Amino acid sequence: MTEYLNTINLGANTLGVKVAARRYFNKEVSELSLSESTVIAAITKNPSKLNPITHPENNAVRRKQVLHNMLSQGYIDESRYQEALNDPVYERIQNVNLVTQGEDKPYSYYTDELTEQVVDALMERLDYKKEDATKLLYSGGLTIYANQDPDLQAIVDQEINNPENYDTAKYSISWRYTLQHEDGTIVNFSEKDIEKYLKEGKGLSFNGLYTSKDQANKRIEEFKEKVTVDSDRILGETVDYVLEPQASFVLMDPHTGEVLALTGGRGEKKQSKTLNRASNVLRQPGSTFKIITSFAPAIDLYGATLASTYYDSEYTLGNKTFKNWYSGGYLGFQSIRDGIVYSLNIVAVRCLMETVKPERGYQYAESLGITSLVKDDENPALALGGLTRGVSNLELTQAFSAIANGGELEKAKFFSKIVDQDGKVLIDTTEDKPTQVMKATTAYLLTDAMKESMESNRAFASDVRVSSTSTRAHFDGMSQAGKSGTTSNNRDIWFIGYTPYYIGGVWGGCDDNQVLKDAKTGEYNGGTGFHKDIWRKIMTKIHEGKTDPGFSKPEDIVEAQVCRKSGKLPTSGCYQDYRGSAVITELFAKGTVPTEKCTYHTSWGAMLVPENLRDLDTDDHYYSYKEPEEEEEDEDSERDSDSSEKNTKNKITISEQGPSKKKSAED
Ligand SMILES: [Zn+2]
């Protein structure tokens, strides 16, 4: 990984030698003469007092010193020294300055976040107060070695901004309009007033998105006509158009924590420090959180394995009924691996409630570096990422990077070193030690299941159709694992995926939380799959020419055959399941292979669903085995308040030939 140098503050809002070279000389760094280079070198000691535009005379003194040092240390000879000294370099700076006036590019999203990270690091590690840290950053002549890889950043920027990756380009607007009435009163209007006018005044079902800039402009003009009279004075009007849906991307090396590229939005970035959707915006993480708060802690700390099963059926806690994302029925006993591959909601919620507990899922997420949770999040919806505030793409990607790095969390690093103007290293992040946040075996097992979610396959079931959630992100020629997330009503879409080399986190959504797609109303604002295309395209490009070493497997991972319905050792009945043999080979951390035998399958292959679950309508229910006498008693006492319709449910006779069809059995 090549480090490249960003020298903070070379005056005139420039950041880095490259930008300074363009700003002062309208040249690339490689094209600078000795004379010009020394002007820039002279700025660093005191960017405000030695600025070549505002204080050329000071800069000249310092520049002479730099040249003198180079001469005395043998970097240049006497003739080059004289030539540089005699060069009327400051006249050229003035000219370029006039030419480029007002053309300074705003900071990139990466640099915006880098400056925040530098200030935070100065405060946390060196006890600076915020204002002192900020002052040091902008006028202390610091040299910051950023971890950004310009080539990778260019690929990320290109795909995030590639119109082909979106089938929709709508616009939200930020509009300010100020009028002064004849009597002197001043009134302000914003895009919210237009929205109100369209909804309440015209009765339109407007959601804040315009289909084109033209349409937005028409609405603005229409509204202005409504509120403006001839005697009004227009004091000001500004409008900004923001492309929607939006997206953000974070690319890291999970083994070092280096943030190699980051993009906080699509479309032109007009100012520094604008809305950074990669690092500063919190959004609902959806199903990506199944791993973070439910499956990972269950396996890592609470004795579960990839083969542990939970009952996928209608599931109600208090007044909340949890549903799966797919329709067509419930699958009965499903393993944690199935829960990951098919992103099963009920399995994740049951795992959190029965094995982990919400408060411990919450703590586990915090141990992976998630800082935006609040106490109220300690509830069953935590397993599905239903959060009070949400998470940032940066923290979510960082959390998954621990899984990609064998359970060791390397905090996201935007710079390797900060060096002061005297050359003293103030902060060196390359010496930071990672934290072991989960067992290496847990990380590998989760990776193996997430790998499968990117491959094409289908759940073991009779007629419930559900497929892997992340095949659209898959690209050829490289090991890869990842987890998708789509929030209810399709407001946020995520994919966090990694290879042996990199981890990339992509988010998509609309800034004002509009739906991306609503099957019921037909509203469509980009759909729910484009982020996976972006991830696949970026990852394909950055892995070009790389060999696939595979994910490294810890020594204490073992294989064992188990029953997929019970997660326990198979009996002869487990082979006889009418949906096919229920015996599978699963991976385990050494010492966690089950020792008990399956009790869910009868010797002839029927399912013996535990009594407390027999009421529930699932794929396994076809085979639920009835023990006549005992069951009758229990049922009578339990079912007093139940409807007669429900009473018929367990009256299914199982024959060895296979299941009677669910509907006909009930009717
Ligand atoms: Zn079994």
- Bound ions, cofactors and other small molecules, one mention each: zinc ion
CATH hierarchy: architecture of the largest domain: 3-Layer(aba) Sandwich
Strands of the widest sheet, in order across it, are: 7-6-18-17-16
CATH C-level label of the largest domain? Alpha Beta
What is the SS-derived class?
Answer: alpha+beta
Q: Which residue ranges are poorly predicted, with pLDDT under 50 across at least 5 consecutive positions?
A: 1-9, 97-103, 625-667
Distance between the termini: 66 Å
Describe this structure in words.
With 667 residues, this protein is an alpha+beta fold. The chain has four domains: 4-146, Penicillin binding protein transpeptidase fold (Orthogonal Bundle), CATH 1.10.3810.10; 169-244; 252-268 and 277-423 and 438-502 and 535-542, Beta-lactamase (3-Layer(aba) Sandwich); 557-667, no CATH class. The chain is 33% helix and 16% strand. The chain is built from 20 helices and 20 strands. It has a five-stranded antiparallel sheet with strand order 7-6-18-17-16, sandwiched between helices. Strand 3 and strand 4 form a beta hairpin. The longest helix has 18 residues, at 109-126. The N and C termini lie far apart (66 Å). It binds zinc ion (ZN). Zinc ion binds at residues 563, 565-566, 570, 574, 582, 598, 600-601.
